[in-house]
Amino acid sequence: MNPPRGHHEDLLTEAAVPESPPGASGSLWFLVASDEEPVREFVRAESARLGARLRTAASAAQALAVFDRQAIDLVVVDLAAPGIGGIELIKRLREDHPETAVVALAEYGSDSAAREALAAGAAETIGRPFEEEDWRAKLGRLARTLSLDRENRVLREQLGARPGFGMLVGLSPRVQEVYRRIEKASRSDSPVLVLGETGTGKELVARSIHFHSPRRQGPFVPVDCAGVVPTLVESELFGYVKGAFTGAFQTKRGLIEAASGGTLFLDEIGELPKEMQAKLLRALQEREVRPVGSTATVRVDIRVVAATHRDLEGEVARGTFRQDLFYRLNVLPIRLPPLRERKSDIPLLVSHLLERMAAEGRPAAAFSEEALERLVAYDWPGNVRELENAVARALALNSGPILHLGDLPTNLQGPPSARAAFPPPAPSHPASRPESRPEVSGFGTSPPDSSAPSSSAEENFTLAELERRAVYGALRKTGGDKVAAARLLGIGKTTLYRKLKEYGQPQDSPESSAASDPVPNPETSGRDSGRDSA
């Protein structure tokens, strides 16, 4: 079918643009491949709103011709476009231009086509006729992600000359402050105390300091104070001479002596037995150690970096950590923010992880927008270490270049606030139960269902039931306004319609003729939607 006159006007009339990598500088570049003028006009308007520049093509062949002249950040592919077809176009783009994000436009009801597009490498699929609000939200999120990817590439170039920074990737002010402190600490030989929750990258900070310091040519010796058997701490740190105790068949250097000329990293220093804290303090003050069983001391030249997840000032107040050792170590403190306090860095971290894992031989992949949103929404109690585990698991389970929600760990597949609503396991003794359990707040900020029964059976609701209650609660709060309810839940209106089709209308909504129990019985209403969480 020949496209109407003017449909490929942009392609024919715009001057050739010098080839450049996507997002290298300036605005993002979008391409829409469709022979339908309403689709093209809508994408044109959204591109302008998002500050992106646009190319248009009326067929798959024209779209490929655009890529011969111009690098594109995002392409909207109409699966019904003339020529080789949308699916084949997506496959070619994923093979020749894997850095470009692809959005597939499919007819509503053609689930098989949408699944085929995702399998071919599309990051998102959108139904047609489309909901403009849903379109705007998805294109906006993709544009923000692409912009972050650009910033991430610049950041990685800056970090390329910084060996040891590793997973310390981020653009947030908190992380930038950590960078500045690392640089200052690297120029000094004073002790450093790194504070932060488990999994925030304390050892990476220590390695960064070492590899940027004048001691970079010396050894970096990590000591896990929590992992050393208490009875062996002294011999591990200070060493021993032959015959010092049963089993000491030869003289062995301690870890402090082994770090001479370099950096000694004392990880989880708060776990060090108090009797050993005094000996360590003396070694740091006098710069000498005396091996177990020896009467002679050995001079050492070390720089100390210590780390802990504990509140050492509180430990000092409780008498479990020596005050003088705390002051000796806390000369240059560096506090690492938990991942939940720098969520804007999560897309950058995910990109960094995927690239690193691809370099290690794992398949190259990218997360779908829905999956990436879920990663950003999660609070990550295990911090970057937990995020790395989730990304590795998704790579191990996926069957294509796009990682979807179902590839994530089970605890990440439900709606973020519904996931947080699960109460902790009930204590076995009734008296030890908390007076109140956490409220169910749905996807976003919708209120709990005050009319729901408060029996103990409610604590055993499935994720699908919690999700259904969140949807109904949002509709009640907005007086049945679906657009407002979708916005409140943080989902697209199309997704809300699909959920209501599965669950049925809430019985007290303006569109329902019944006015009895405002929340349908979980045993009798709707289908279980656990397989398709919003």
Please describe what this structure looks like.
This protein is of the alpha/beta class and 534 residues long. The protein folds into four domains: 9-154, 3-Layer(aba) Sandwich (Rossmann fold), CATH 3.40.50.2300; 173-335, Rossmann fold (3-Layer(aba) Sandwich); 343-413, Orthogonal Bundle (Helicase, Ruva Protein, domain 3), CATH 1.10.8.60; 439-534, Homeodomain-like (Arc Repressor Mutant, subunit A, Orthogonal Bundle). 40% of the residues lie in helices and 12% in strands. It contains 20 helices and 16 strands. It has helices at 9-13, 37-49, 60-69, 86-96, 111-120, 132-159, 173-186, 202-211, 233-238, 255-258, 274-286, 312-318, 323-329, 346-359, 369-377, 383-397, 416-420, 463-477, 482-489, 493-503, and strands at residues 29-33, 53-57, 74-78, 101-107, 124-128, 192-195, 220-224, 239-240, 252-253, 263-267, 288-289, 298-299, 303-308, 332-335, 366-367, 402-403. The chain has a five-stranded parallel beta sheet with strand order 2-1-3-4-5, sandwiched between helices. Strand 1 (29-33), helix 2 (37-49) and strand 2 form a beta-alpha-beta unit. The longest helix is centred in the first third of the chain and has 28 residues, at 132-159. The protein is elongated and about 90 Å long. 37% of the residues are buried. Mean pLDDT is 75; it is low at 1-25, 158-166, 417-463 and 508-534.
